Amino acid sequence: MARSTFVYVTYIRTTQQKLWSALTDKEFMKQYWFGNQCESQWTPGSTWKMTYPDGRLTDAGEIIEADPPRRLVIRWEHQHKPELKAEGPSLCTMELETSGSAVKLSITHSIEREPSQLIHAVSGGWPKVLSNLKSLLETGTVAL
Amino acid sequence: MLAYCLQVSDADLLFKALADPGRRKLLDRLHAHDGQTLGELCQHLDMTRQGVTQHLALLEAANLVAVQWRGREKLHFLNPVPMQEIYERWVRKFEKPRLKALHDLKRRLEDGDD
After folding, report:
1. pLDDT for residue A24 is more than 90
2. Which of A9, A136, A144 to mutate to probe the B interface, most B CBs <10 Å?
3. E strands present in A2-140
4. ∠ Cα A119 A124 A128 (to 5°)
5. A120 domain residue, yes or no
6. What is the pLDDT of residue B41?
7. Which residues constitute the domain of residue B64?
8. Cα-based torsion angle of the residue sequence B43, B45, B51, B56 in order, rounded to the nearest 10 degrees
9. Does ipTM come in above 0.90?
């Protein structure tokens, strides 16, 4: 089956452990996810959900793999917009790898359909989120 | 200081990578259709396979292209994160509504009536 995939890579001058915490800590995430909140136990099989700052559900799913501080796989299903929800589950894989004095963070987001409105929608959001995350970890403030 | 040096060299790699029309064309082709193999990228391009390989290596070094393996196939993906960083550092800060109005006027005049 055709698949739509986006790959995002950023190098952040931090440690794998700090980056893992940044990717899984509710309060920290709020700072670089434009106020969105994320909740999960971050263990395989546990539920995962993201809400807008006003509390409406935006995405939900399940943790498929969690290997701290190296690899996190989330089944990611949009909930808010009917046309995106209709596309069903997507898969978001985050990989952390030390590279010199930095950590390489690779995020792969894919869905088993082509074209995909969901992948198109997240492709606009991820670069801003990652840019904020990098800025927050390296300088203590967000860029946007 | 070390962090500063690293940042400077990252930006240098990025701008050098963008300073070539062939490499910008490759980015456009990945934007139109992401996740292509070298062979797919070489089609419809007026470049040798070796030239494309070299350009891709530079784009990869600048982190503008991310590579994933699917079996024995090497797939190339456009990585938009450094573009976002350029935007924040070099565009947003200088952005003013008047500049946008000027840009729109220039486009309208140059594009004729479309």
Report:
1. yes
2. A9
3. 4-12, 37-40, 47-51, 57-67, 71-78, 90-99, 102-111
4. 130
5. yes
6. 95
7. 2-79
8. -80
9. no
For the domain that residue A118 is a member of, what is the CATH number?
3.30.530.20
Would you call A13 and B6 a contact, using CB atoms and an 8 Å cutoff?
A: yes
Count of C-beta atoms within a 10 Å radius of residue A103: 22
Residues B23 and B12 in one domain: yes
Q: Which residue of A has its CA nearest to B33?
A: A4
Which two tokens mark B45? 């391009």
d(CA B114, CA B108): 8
Number of domain units in chain B: 2
Residues on chain A touching B63 (C-beta within 8 angstroms) = 9-11
Kindly state whether residues B64 and B90 are assigned to the same domain: no
Question: Scanning every residue of chain B, which has its alpha carbon at the shortest distance from the alpha carbon of A134?
Answer: B85
State which amino acid sits at residue B79: N
- The tens digit of pLDDT for each residue in B54-105 reads 999 999 999 999 999 989 999 999 998 898 888 888 887 777 666 777 778 8
Asked if residue A144 is part of any domain, the answer here is no
Work out how many domains chain A is built from and give that number. 1
Q: Does residue B72 share a domain with residue B17?
A: yes
| A24 phi/psi in degrees, rounded to 5 | -125, 0
* pLDDT at residue A123, as a whole number: 79
Q: How many CB atoms lie within 10 A of CB A17?
A: 12
User: Chain A within 8 Å of B83 (Cβ-Cβ)?
Assistant: yes
Q: Is B81 on the interface with A (CB under 8 A)?
A: yes
Q: What is the pLDDT of residue B11?
A: 84
- Specify if A88 maps to a domain: yes
